[in-house]
Amino acid sequence: MKESRAIELLSPARNLECGIEAIKHGADAVYIGAGRFGARQAAGNSVDDIAQLARLAHFYGAKVYVTVNTILKDSELADAEKLIWQLYEAGADALLIQDMAVLRMKLPPIALHASTQCDVRSVDKVRFLAGCGFTRVVLARELSLDEIRAIHEACPDVELECFVHGALCVSYSGQCYASQYCFGRSANRGECAQFCRLKFDLVDSDGNVIVKGKHLLSLRDMNRMESLEQLMDAGVCSFKIEGRLKETSYVKNVTAAYSDAIGKILERRNDYYRASSGHSEYMFTPDVNKSFNRGFTDYFLHGRRPDIWSPNTPKSKGELMGQVRIAGRGFITVTGNKPFHNGDGLCYIGQDGELKGYRVNRVENGRIFLYLESGEMPTVAAGTDVYRNFDQEFEKTLAKESAVRRISTDILFEETAAGYRVSMTDEDGNTASASQEWKKEDARTPQENNIRTQLTKLGGTRFEAKTVDIKLDGDRFIPSSLLSDMRRQVTEQLETVRMDSYVRPAEGVASDVKVEYPVRELTYLGNVMNAQARTFYTDHGVQRVDDAFEKTAPESATVMFCRHCIKNSMGLCTKNRMVDKQLREPLFLVSQDGRRFRLRFDCAHCQMEILY
């Protein structure tokens, strides 16, 4: 019989507040950065905040993963090891790491996850990491459903985590050096300057400008909500939402939307179950279109798609509201019947190909009046798509308390020889009870309704009553104050029992036989910045280890490796025999500051490289 598998929704947290809201809105786990060594340097958090988040998460059986996933300098290794112990003592459930020097440290018994920065996209790489003691790998975003399934079938005991929503890097993660090369800000050190969101000209070998001033490396955002069940069946156990730099409202909305979607699948699939306990109730209707997005794509999950990029803008477009019907003096009208609100943010792609944005001043009789400079006219043509990238009313709702998460309990109230006892058993089988000696007194009127009412007043706790069973020898008069006191005692005890029963994930066990790294030589692509990482790789059979790009930049190198292909997205793939237009290669990307990058197309592997 097939073993049932836990399914986890993993949400981002830029800070403690985001982490708390992610848990409340249905996350089974949260990933968060510590004060140092995380791949989002601007999203660091204190150990005390991580400890507080862990206490809340563990009450629901949810987990907290901490990112320690930058490459490290020799001078940072001791501090990183000290931090890891502090995180373990704070209650962290696992570490996401990139630098293999961590495996040569004296570590606490904590699970290790291979970060997406490890560029995991092959069976051999997964086997190697598992053999080194990793319990989970974060797969490259570029993998197809078939590629994910093949990894799971070859490595069924390794937990597979994959991104399902959020911003996309155009380069394979951990293999991008453009930010370091251009701005001295390393993506492998948590300082990415988002080179891929800049404008470029596309120029052929004769100097002809094929495309002028477009965001040729800027991709749409990922949305795999329609493919969650297929991903489960392919072997994925953790669905990751991108966004450790995103605001709290984004985390609330997107977490709730995916939590609901996963819940609906699990209602009819008994071969999967939720990785944490409790259920969330929302004071709003989740809708991912209303949160930051550049338009959506499922990326390469179902094969190569030409429409994965967003060349006109790297900014959020939001939800499609309709098309312009009339553009008048200071107002527009829009097709469809979606409601607009005062204060909404609207945008559209203008005739010059640039994103234009306006704030709604007021809405009257179907006319949407915009905040405009004196004499300014909205430069928009009839038939243009209009998007809302800020929904004023929706954001107001999310700014308030927008979800509660509670644990279901069964309550038993019964008579004892000396008085009464109330017991609570939660959905995970944890039990607590409180007894009270009390002189028994027959009631003049039925008391069951009052007993039930008093015992189910759990609104100030993280529990809710699913059933109440009352066992008395006839009607007894029991003061409401006594029932309230016993309810308080038993809920406090059950909270303690739940926390005491929580068990962190087991650490991985390295293979008894030294596993060999899949390749014998590591170029700068190995991201080896310190002596301990170098020793790690040589111990595992690597014969030559070059310095990381950040330590010793090559005279010429590929700074991006992309599955996204500009020629394919423009309909000019040379594999398509129907294409009659051929470009004069090599092609070049020229940035607005004049930097020139050559494009190399590895058509056998459908890969585009960007070189300096």
Name some characteristics of this structure.
612 residues; alpha/beta; 8-stranded parallel β-barrel; 6-stranded antiparallel beta sheet; 13 helices; globular
Describe the model.
The mean pLDDT is 95. The longest helix is centred in the last third of the chain and has 22 residues, at 480-501. Helix content is 23%, strand content 27%. The chain has 612 residues and is an alpha/beta fold. Strands 1-2-3-4-5-6-7-11 form an eight-stranded parallel beta barrel, surrounded by seven helices. Strands 9-8-28-29-30-27 form a six-stranded antiparallel beta sheet, with no helix packed on it. It contains 13 helices and 30 strands.
* Shape type: globular
Gyration radius, to the nearest Å? Answer: 28 Å
The computed structural class is alpha/beta
> Which percent band covers the strand fraction?
25-35%
User: Cα distance, first to last residue?
Assistant: 55 Å
What is the secondary structure topology, with strand pairs?
Layout: E1 5-13, H1 16-24, E2 29-33, H2 47-59, E3 63-68, H3 77-90, E4 94-97, E5 111-114, H4 123-131, E6 136-138, H5 145-154, E7 159-166, H6 178-183, E8 200-203, E9 209-214, E10 221-223, H7 228-234, E11 236-241, H8 248-268, E12 272-274, E13 279-282, E14 296-297, E15 319-327, E16 331-334, E17 345-349, E18 355-364, E19 367-370, E20 385-390, H9 392-399, E21 403-415, E22 419-426, E23 431-437, H10 448-455, E24 463-471, H11 480-501, E25 521-522, H12 531-539, E26 544-545, E27 558-562, H13 566-569, E28 587-591, E29 596-602, E30 607-611
